[in-house]
Design goal:
Length: 637
Amino acid sequence: MIEITLKDGSKKSFEKGTTILDIAKSISEGLARAALAGEVDGEVKDLNTPINKDCQLNLLTFDSEGGKHTYWHTTSHIMAQAVKRLFPNVKLAIGPAIENGFYYDFDIDKPFTPDDLKVIEEEMKKIIKENLPIERFILSREEALKLMKDEPYKIELINELPEDAEISFYKQGDFTDLCAGPHLPSTGMVKAVKLVQQAGAYWRGNENNKMLQRIYGISFPKASQLEEYLKMIEEAEKRDHRRLGKELGLFSFDEEVGPGLVLWHPKGARVRMRIEDFWRQEHIKNGYDIVYTPHIGRGKLWETSGHLGFYKESMYSAMDVDGQDFYAKPMNCPFHIAIYNSRLHSYRDLPLRWAELGTVYRYEKSGVLHGLLRVRGFTQDDAHLFCAPDQMPAEIRRVLRFCLYMLNSFGFENYKIYLSTKPKEKYVGDESMWEAATNALKEAVLAEGLECDIDEGGGAFYGPKIDIKIKDALNREWQCSTIQFDFNEPERFDLTYVAPDGTRQRPYMIHRALLGSIERFFGVLLEHYAGAFPVWLAPVQARILPILESHHEYANQIAEKLRLHDVYVEVDTRNEKIGYKIREVQMDKVPYMLVIGDKEMESGTVSVRSRKDGDIGSMPVDEFVSRIVEEIKTHAR
RNA sequence: GCUGGUGUAGCACAGUCGGUAGUGCAGCUGAUUCGUAAUCAGCAGGUCGUGCGUUCGAGUCGCAUCACCAGCUCCA
C-alpha cells in the first residue's frame, strides 16, 4: 500500500500501481471527469500514470496552469496528427503549449492558407470524435532514432537529449510523436478548438535557420469558454491604442511622411504636453537640469561613441553635408557627454543630472513597427547621471525611487523589475566596476522593498541595468523604464573629473529613461485607461452642452472662466438635442459635461454629468471650477 | 528583414462569373427650439494604395512595389 497526500492535506491509502485517474475517481466522479493531469511531488504527470510510492498529489483541472498546458499540448498533437493526415510530406518540429493556447511548427514546401486551416480544424474534430486513446512509451536512443528516421527535426532533438534522459513518445491512433508529455488520456477530451492563425517562425527561433510554418490555436473544455475567450480578444481590440488614437483624433501615421513616424494631432499633443510639463516640473524638483541637444551629429562623434561600430544597422543612413557624413541621432548620450566635456569638472560638481526629452531616430526593421509602441522616431525622456564612485549607490536609489514615483503618478501600480547582469563573453570595464554597479542596483531594489527577477548575463556589453516593465489593464507587460550603467562611453570620450587629491578620475555614467519613450508610454497609457484619461490628462476636460441657443452666451461665460483656470473646455453650440450631444461626449470620453439650461442660467449653476457616474446634480459654477481644478492638481483618477 | 493576410468615400464595410462603384456613420444645407447615450429631409463626397501587364473591357485576373495587420527575429 502507498499513502497519497492530497492538496487539502488529507491522506489516503491505495494499492501500489493505482493510476492518478483511479485516485481521482475514488475522491469524486466529478473531479475525475474534470481532471486533466496530476501533479506528483510537483511534477505534472499523465492521468494514467501508476503511482508506486508515497507522494503528494494535486489533481489538475483546466483551472490550473498545469491542467491548461496539458490540455493545450494534447490539442497541439491532435493538430499535428490532422496535418500529417492531410499533408503526409510535412516534417514535424515542435508543438508546445503557450500562455494562451498552443502552436506546432511544420516544415512544408507550401505555406498553409487560411482555407487549409479550416480543413485542418475539421480533421481535428474528426480525431477528437474518434476518441483515440493516448499512450506513452519509452524507447532506447537507437530505437527512437529508428522510429523517427523520416523526421529530421526530431532526430536533432533526440541527439541533443542528455545521455541519461528517458526518451518518451506519445501515440494516438496513426500518429506518434517524440514528447516529454504530459498528455490527456484520450483525444476525445478536447472539446472546443479554434485555429487562430498561421505564421512563419524560424527553427529554434534563429533567423539564420529555415523558416517553418507555425499554426497557432486554442482549445477549451466548453464551447462557451471559447466564445468568452474570443469576446475577450474583441474587448482588447476595442482598447487597442491604434484604434483609440484614430477614434479620439490623437495621432496618426501617413504613408507619404514615412512608416513609424508619428503625427501628433492637437488633442494628442495636449495629452503629451501635460505629460511633459509634469515630467519637467518633477525633474527640476528632483535635482535635474534640463538640456537641449541637436538632432544630428557628425560621423566622427558616432565613431567615437561606438555607435557606428555596434549599432550602424539601426541608424538612419548618413546624409552628406559639405562632403561630410552626418547622422540622425539614435541616442542622446554623446551630446550630453559633449556638454560634460565642454569644461573641466571638479568632484564638487558631482553628481550631475542632465535630462532631455530627446527625439531620436532608429531604423527599425519594417516588420517590427507597431503603432506607437514601436516607431522609428521617438522622444526619450532621457537623462544621464555623472557621479563619483562613492555617490553611485545613493544615486541609484534616488533614481529608482523617482522612477516608481513617476509610474505611480500616471496610474501604473503593477510592474515587474528585471536586473540584467554581466554578459559572459562580450563586455567592457573591469570586474570590480561590474560588481559594484550590479550590487548597487540590487540593493536599491531591495532597499525600496521591491523584488526583481535576475536576468543572468542579460546586461548590455557596456554595463548592467534595471528594466521596469509596466503592466497595463490587460496585464500585458511593456518595457518603459530603464536604468543602465555605461562603462563604455566614459572611456571612449575620456570623461574625467578632478578628485580631492588633484588626480583625474573617471566618473560613473548612468543612462536612464523613466517613461521610456513618450510615444510608447502614451500608447500604453492610452490602452491602460481605454482612452478615458483621468481629468488631469484628458485632452478635453469638460464640454459644455447648452440646451437652447438662448443659453449659448452663459455657456461661453463658463467656458471662459474654466479656461482662465487652465482647463481644456469646449462648448457644443450645434443645433442638436441634448441626448445627441451627451452621447457624443461619452464616446469622446470627456470626463465632465456641463448641461446648461434655463434653470442653471437663473441660479448661476451648472448641471454636472460625469463620464463615469452619469448625472451628479447641479452646483454653483465656482464650486465646479474648484472641484475640477482640485482634481487636476491632485491627479485624481 | 522573413512567412501569411489586408488595402474600395473622413471612418466601418458591401461589391457575385471581368462589363465603368454602393450602404451606414461622419460632413455640408435646410427644417425642428428640444433637459441627460442617436430628430427629420436633402446635398455632396471615390484615378478602388501605386505602377506595369493580360483583355474589346480590370475594383475584380497576373507581376512588381508601398503601407498596414498577425506572428518570427530584434527592440525604448
